[in-house]
Amino acid sequence: MLLLDGKATAAAIRAELKEEVAAGLAAAGRAPGLAVILVGEDPASQVYVRNKERGCEEAGIRSEAFRLPADTTQETLEVLIDELNGRADIDGILLQLPLPKGLNSQRCLERISPKKDVDGFHPENMGRLALGLPGFRPCTPAGVMTLLERYDLSPSGKKAVVVGRSNIVGKPLALMLGAPGKYANATVTVCHSGTPNLAEECRQADFLFVAAGRPCLVTSDMVKPGAVVVDVGIHRTDEGLVGDCKYDDITCIASAMTPVPGGVGPMTIAQLLINTVISWKGRTGIAG
Ligand code: NAP
To answer: Would residue 259 count as lying in a domain?
Structure first.
């Protein structure tokens, strides 16, 4: 079985970005800039933000963190977003979710300029994805697509099943897989909590993507022999981190699979860095 090593692939991407940034620095006149906003003290979010800052540093991106207290008002947050929208040295704005209770995340996400929306959550960028137009793509599904491409695994002409239809993973991933393109062009089925026979649907998949947020939901009897399995889920349990798939059992059946941790997680951050560098190139006019 082929291990789809997101950790190693992400490290290679960071090294490539570092070279790209160094090559464009003189012409651009400045390094790429990413603003990261973290509201409150959610421990998981703090880890994610630290990892994103570390990734930026390795790729030659200047990250600026804004750590705000949990009682920050909607207005204060929106004023900060407006300020960052207007700053010439900021190419991307990332608002770490979830926000503390009382804050309206959708309103904040819509406040971020679509031109700096490197997380790809703004309705304009989601609409562009649906229409097949260029724009920032959400980092987790785009990171999954990048991982497939790096391993030369093409779902073109194959049957893909996506378990989950969230706005940040399942829905955009299904759109990306079903779009034309060498590393897309799949026939896509989307499953959710209303799907009557999940096992049967999953067994049809040549490419199975699981983003249900349910630990070990997908077991080996639900996987077609030789399938490529991408596990997006991540859960902290007494036995350590686990995904949405029963990893050990499925590795005996699948032809390729992502581990948890070390699969999709690092690719999500790598994609954020890619999006930031794309924004920097466009905004400084050095894009080829
Ligand atoms: P979410 O918003 O909770 O969405 C879960 C989706 O799965 C929903 O569409 C839900 O259906 C569906 N679902 C839940 N139980 C199901 C079942 N038994 N059978 C079929 N479908 C089921 O979760 P998310 O934000 O997409 O995240 C999914 C997982 O990925 C989580 O474990 C999350 O931590 C992880 N994640 C990882 C990364 C990363 O970088 N590695 C990034 C994002 C998310 P309904 O729509 O019908 O409710």
So the answer is: yes
Domain assignment of residue 3, yes or no: no
Residue 288's CB: how many other CB atoms inside 10 A?
4
173 inside domain: yes
Same domain, 108 and 163: no
Q: State whether the beta carbon of 217 lies less than 6 angstroms from ligand 1.
A: yes
Residue at 217: amino acid letter: L
> For position 156, which CATH number holds?
3.40.50.720
| pLDDT, tens digit, 9 for 90 and up, residues 223-268 | 999 999 999 999 999 989 999 999 999 999 999 999 999 999 999 9
What is the arrangement of strands in the sheet containing 62-68, beginning at the earlier edge strand? 62-68, 33-39, 92-95
Q: Is 7 in the pocket of ligand 1 (CB under 6 A)?
A: no
Q: Which of 280, 252, 268 is nearest to 211 (CA)?
A: 268
User: Which ligand 1 atom lies nearest to the CA of residue 267?
Assistant: 40
pTM (predicted TM-score)? 0.98
Q: How many domains does the chain have?
A: 2
